[in-house]
Amino acid sequence: MDSLKTKPAPTVVARTVILAAATDLILILAFAAIGRDAHHREEPVLGVLLTAWPFLAGAAAGWMAARAWRNPLSALRAGVPVWVGSLVGGMVLRALTAQTVVLPFIIVATLALAVFLVGYRLLLAGVVRLRRR
Q1: Is 2 within the bounds of a domain?
Q2: Mean pLDDT confidence for 56-79
Q3: Which of 6, 12, 14, 115 has its CA at 20 to 30 Å from residue 43's CA atom?
Q4: Is 3 domain-assigned?
Q5: Residue 99 burial by Cβ neighbours in a 10 Å radius (0-12, 13-18, 19+)
Q6: Exposed, middle or buried: residue 88 (CB in 10 Å: 0-12, 13-18, 19+)?
Q7: Assigned domain for 105 exists
Q8: What is the mean pLDDT of the segment spanning 64-92?
Q9: Which domain holds residue 105?
């Protein structure tokens, strides 16, 4: 006899999607804030938003392209596309709006955004595995 699989309630799924999207948003804002602070930039709030918006737009494109809402906590199905979208989209939009795009920044952004956007999903997957034991 096949075991019955229960689907999570729609409100649980919606809450997970909202929390994952909000976490991505917060982590991208943190990335921008850390970078601005490291370079002693002024305009803390507006400056962070101006730095973050290209990466946020790229992350949104990554969410859409991967349909990340289907499995928002998956490192592979959501994390990697959101990371790549935020990185590539962010750099393209920065270049199109005459913001700085230099190799050291690309390297730092690649690593930092990977750690943030893929990393928390990997950590959550590890916690879930440990709890199941």
Answers
A1: no
A2: 97
A3: 115
A4: no
A5: middle
A6: middle
A7: yes
A8: 97
A9: 10-132
Collect all residues with Cβ–Cβ distance below 8 Å to 22 and sequence separation of at least 6.
none
Please give the helix or strand (H or E) that residue 124 lies within, else none.
Answer: helix 119-132
**For the segment 44-56, what is each residue's pLDDT rounded down to a tens digit?**
789 899 999 999 9
Q: What is the pLDDT of residue 7?
A: 66
105-128 pLDDT, tens digit each = 999 999 999 999 999 999 999 999
* Number of Cβ atoms within 10 Å of the Cβ of 100: 9
User: Rounded to 5, what percent of the chain is helix, strand, coil?
Assistant: 80, 0, 20
Q: 41 phi and psi, to 5 degrees?
A: -85, 150
The pLDDT-based confidence of 133 (bands split at 50, 70, 90) is: confident
Residue type, 114: A
